[in-house]
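Subject: mismatched residue count in predicted assembly?

I count 607 residues in my input, but I want to confirm that the predicted structure covers every chain. Input:
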Amino acid sequence: MNPRRDWDHFWFDPIGGTSLGLFRFFFGLSCIIGAVLLWPDRVLWFTDQGPITFAVAQMLNALGTPGPTPYSPLNAHTTELGISLFFIAFIVASLTLSLGFCTRTSAILVDLGLSALHNRNNQIINGSDLVFSVMAFYLILSPAGAVFSVDRLIRLARGKEPAEPRLIVPWAQRLMQIQVSIIYCAAVLSKVTGSLWINGMAVYYPVNYPELQRFPIPHLGVNDIWLIDLLTYGAIATEFALVFFIWHPRLRLYVITAGVLLHLGIEYSINVPMFAGIMIASYLTFITDEDWKKLKRSLKRRFAYAKLTVTTNGTYRPLALALLKRFDPVELIQYKVDPDWQDSGSLVRAEDVHGRTYLDRLVVREMASRIPVLWPLRLISWFPGGNKWAESLERSIVTKRPAPAEQADVTHEAMATNS
Amino acid sequence: MLTRTEEEKESVRDRRVSRLERRWFRRTLISVFLVFNLSAILVCLLPTASGINHGLIGFFRPYLMMTGLNQSWQMFSPNPDGTDAYMSANVIMKNGKVVYFEYPRMEKLGYVTKYREERYRKFIENARSNMYDWQPMCIWLAKRYKAQQPQIIVLSKYSRPVPPPGVEFGAFARKIVYTYNVSTGGGK
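Triage response: the counts match. Full output below for your records.
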């Protein structure tokens, strides 16, 4: 055992950025949903037209946390227009964070936005808001735009990054993971001092509290005390596992599954918006590169029947090719260049595993079926003018073969992106 | 064949050493930050009665507040809230008319509306026990009913225990928590 080496290994040994990229995507998306939910009451909760005026908010902040007063730009002068613009800016920043465009700047803006809202009215914030606040800070510190991001696509287009995503130094992601365990550790330590948690009745109360209840859990009455006990002790055991056993490589996925079930149960029975979503998204930071590879292999086997080989006698546009490959993580589509293939006016053809052949815009339709982000295109193709879209998309993916002088370079580039 | 001169080799060695040193320096800086950050969170989460929390929280608090890392995770603990409660107000106008105002109650809302308006529940959950919320709640109502010239606002809390399994819910008990005089701005 070498503490120095282990420390460096844990915090600094490079890992893949897939998990962090996905977490960033869902985090940004959750911020947008949270802001949209708050939008109708923005004036009531965050301006002096509501019950918590700026002066009251400052007093409540000072009571809650002695020391420096938390800052919020949403002050006594914030108008209806001002708060509306603030929300729009926050939603835009969340969207760019989700897409990974100007990722670090977006993360800073989202973090500042969350702080501004929480500090302006701490009487309406709940557990999920705290998770958002903490994770936003860690996203600023992390290379969250390394994978699954517009930033990466821009770097690819400029030739500043190889086709394979670069590895990331994981110390900020490790902080997120530790934060998840800290949340459950604090919750478990607090729960084991409560009599209702000890005697197994705790779950009964929140799910039967009319103000908190969402959907009823059947069979949770006087004749089913065993079920209440099971749910109560099961919740504590799962939280305990999320503190310790989630770190064990062999148990990690089982513990994450238990955590997901716990939060889906909470989401079903108790009305605490966004909490389950952000906690489940946080578990993504625990998924390793090996897990993603296994998942990819399994999906590849599962969807082997849907493989498609797309061949062009022209050339692929490097950016379009990179984009398509990014959004096809299971690699259902193979891209080939065949300069010898000649067809009457066709630029691109595709062949599926059953030997069926498709030409031109039908190729786009088949590709759209296999790439989830392109599914809306299938819908569009049913509307008038949809075929034109497919044709223009086809042209943006492949181009006619250039003059022989340029040909070698472009083909080489396409092949390199392919590999 | 291209060969490096001794000077060039020296320069390459220097660059490698310098890169290693930079990496070492950066890692050390990050490690110091990690220890500081985790210490701040642990101190923040320790019980307020503990000596460590009492002694160090003042040092860490500015960092925690600035970064949004100030946290507490007592979800349904040590025991879940066993009280079903809501708040309402009687707004007495100058002409003697009384308007009853009830802060939104989740149990009366549809699934979608209650999802969107959960913040009201959180607000009332805080306001039930936080006396500093009561006057602002009354002032807000005074502004809301300004056109009808409100004079007195009586803020009430209704509560009943969530009964154990097999027992029916009882009736709500009303408690007047705050009476606000709009014209003088005083209350008790």
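Strands of chain A lie at 308-312, 315-316, 333-337, 348-352, 357-359, 398-399. Marking this ticket as 'not a bug'.
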